[in-house]
Design a protein that fits this description.
Length: about 375
């Protein structure tokens, strides 16, 4: 149940009482409470019903098949012996270490179990029936789904011809916008929005709105981070997750990086503690400085090999700098291609409504991508 204070706050923001139950569930138990909102659930849209063969190629959910690095795995394993204790100090150490590496004070970082929860909480905090949610299209849908539960209008702004966020159209979408969401590189397109465009949006977004920059895939692209906006106390919230480059999708670790007042606002709609195994693995990952450049190279090499294969066979795709790529199936039905690949024990991702002829393929291990290439040619023959 929502407290009387929160109920009054939501009513003052024009939020209907009929939405209170869903909002209460979102606040009380986080992403798991509303499965159609959460990162794991959106990943499950690419999942498969029935038994999956043990030797299946799973390149459907933007996971990192490399898993956690050696240091992270050892740290998480060692922490299990202390699983009977809360060990809040682990979370504090993680926050301080990430803040130090970003050149920020510790109060500018708040730990989360991944990045879905702060995205959901931002929708609760900053959107309402009079404060729309603005996002790129196609884009990652968790935030817009949460905003709809606040009774907020969702404005989808098509990507540009170069597959970047159309920042000027986003800024002009609604003068009363509450939250603008920009994933960079974007999911599912795997494409970058230029740094100068993001700088422009920070300075020209609607007054009073908050810009959320999701950096789930930024390590993979080697693109500039956006925490300098936070250091300048802009109305910006940066999201980080350890699910991608660090291979910790199942261990759950992430952070929101923002001004302390913005983090306090998000914190009104959350509770609980972080898993100590995830925090220990995240700390170890941050200290293992070789992980990011080494994995960026490995993922990039496999991605480039896949794109060369697509070029060789005149297969249309969206050039990516991330760990996923959108491939056009041409005149074929996407459902037939997806099921055909499954028959070859290759499981790829889903389709976005605005790009109905494209399917998302995650970059896997070299051997997995070779299996994908063989299966793709067979299915498309």
């Amino acid at each position: 149940m929502l407290t009387p204070k929160l109920q009054r706050e939501f009513e003052d923001r024009g939020i209907s009482r009929r939405n209170f139950g869903r909002i209460a569930a979102m606040i009380s138990t986080g992403a798991a409470a509303m499965p159609f909102l959460s990162e794991p659930a959106l990943a499950q849209l690419s999942a498969i019903s029935g038994k999956i063969p043990d030797d299946a190629v799973m390149i459907n959910s933007n996971e990192n098949p490399l898993g956690p690095c050696k240091e992270a795995a050892e740290a998480a394993h060692a922490m299990i012996a202390q699983g009977g204790r809360y060990l809040f100090s682990q979370t504090n150490e993680f926050q301080e270490l990430l803040a130090e590496q970003e050149g920020l004070k510790g109060s500018y970082v708040k730990a989360y179990a991944g990045s879905s929860a702060p995205l959901m909480q931002a929708a609760i905090a900053f959107t309402s029936p009079t404060k729309p949610f603005v996002t790129g299209d196609p884009g990652y849908e968790a935030g817009e789904n949460s905003a709809r539960n606040m009774g907020a209008k969702v404005i989808r702004v098509p990507l540009t011809k170069t597959y970047a966020h159309d920042v000027r159209a986003m800024a002009a979408a609604d003068p009363n916008a509450g939250l603008l969401y920009l994933c960079n590189p974007n999911n599912p397109s795997g494409t970058l929005t230029p740094r100068e465009d993001i700088e422009w949006l920070v300075e020209n977004k609607p007054k009073g709105s908050v810009l959320m920059i999701d950096e789930a895939y930024t390590h993979i692209a080697g693109a500039p981070f956006s925490t300098d906006f936070v250091a300048k106390d802009k109305d910006v919230v940066v999201l980080r997750t350890f699910s991608k480059i660090y291979g910790m999708a199942g261990l759950r670790a992430g952070a929101a990086i923002a001004r302390p007042d913005l983090l306090r606002t998000l914190g009104k709609y959350s509770g609980g503690m972080m898993p100590i195994t995830g925090m220990a693995a995240a700390i170890a990952s941050l200290k293992a400085k070789y992980v990011v450049p080494e994995r960026r190279q490995k993922i990039g090499d496999v991605r480039n090999s896949l794109q060369a294969f697509l070029d060789k066979h005149d297969i249309k795709y969206v050039p990516s700098v991330s760990n996923c790529i959108m491939i056009d199936v041409g005149q074929r039905k996407t459902g037939d291609v997806i099921s055909g690949l499954q028959a070859e024990k290759v499981y790829i991702g889903r389709v976005w409504q605005s790009w109905p002829t494209k399917v998302r393929v995650t970059i896997g291990l070299p051997s997995e991508m070779e299996a994908f290439k063989t299966a793709w040619l067979k299915v498309m023959a």
